[in-house]
């Protein structure tokens, strides 16, 4: 099931991206530029507020949603991105080459997913799985009062 959640992100790369400015939440749309298993890559400009927010607090959440399904991920971004990955991102995104003259005019960062929720409202009962990638555990989440007695809180390995 974890692969289903990762594939959903691969197929829905436009995500709501949440940071914070002090104690205030900030939300904007971002595009996942590259995905390697559970690591997501992004780019922005060092002149944007989001970059300053990430430098102050690298903890973020993202949310992808489509057709009554969603994947929410959290983790701590880091700025260690290999030069060949930066070039690949720049060369494979037509928007970046329209906005910037070279790949090195942009800043890049990656999000190793620490926790991920997969939520599908299509079936009855709905599916809500929580993946703790750091601990290697999967848990089921609360999907509604009607299904509370069916909730299995036991955790198992990813």
Structure characteristics:
Pnp Oxidase, Chain A, 8-stranded antiparallel β-sheet, 3-stranded antiparallel β-sheet, 41% strand, elongated
Q: Could you walk me through the main structural features you see in this protein, from its secondary elements to its overall organization?
A:
This protein is an alpha+beta fold. The chain has helices spanning 2-11, 49-56, 83-91, 94-99, and strands at residues 14-21, 24-31, 34-36, 39-44, 59-66, 69-76, 107-112, 115-120, 127-132, 137-140, 156-157. The N and C termini lie close together (9 Å). The model has no long low-confidence stretch (mean pLDDT 92).
Layout of helices and strands:
Blueprint: H1 2-11, E1 14-21, E2 24-31, E3 34-36, E4 39-44, H2 49-56, E5 59-66, E6 69-76, H3 83-91, H4 94-99, E7 107-112, E8 115-120, E9 127-132, E10 137-140, E11 156-157
């Amino acid at each position: 099931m974890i692969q289903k959640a990762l594939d959903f992100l691969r197929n829905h790369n436009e995500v709501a991206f949440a940071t914070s400015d002090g104690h205030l939440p900030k939300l904007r749309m971002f595009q996942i530029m590259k995905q390697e298993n559970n690591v997501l890559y992004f780019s922005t400009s060092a002149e944007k507020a989001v970059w300053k927010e990430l430098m102050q607090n690298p903890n973020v959440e993202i949310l992808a949603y489509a057709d009554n399904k969603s994947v929410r991920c959290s983790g701590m971004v880091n700025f260690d991105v290999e030069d060949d990955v930066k070039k690949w991102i720049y060369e494979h995104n037509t928007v970046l080459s329209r906005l910037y003259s070279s790949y090195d005019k942009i800043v890049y960062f990656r999000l190793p997913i620490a926790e991920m929720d997969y939520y599908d409202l299509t079936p009855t009962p709905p599916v809500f799985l929580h993946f703790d990638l750091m601990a290697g555990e999967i848990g089921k989440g609360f999907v509604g009062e009607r299904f509370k007695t069916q909730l299995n809180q036991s955790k198992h390995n990813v």
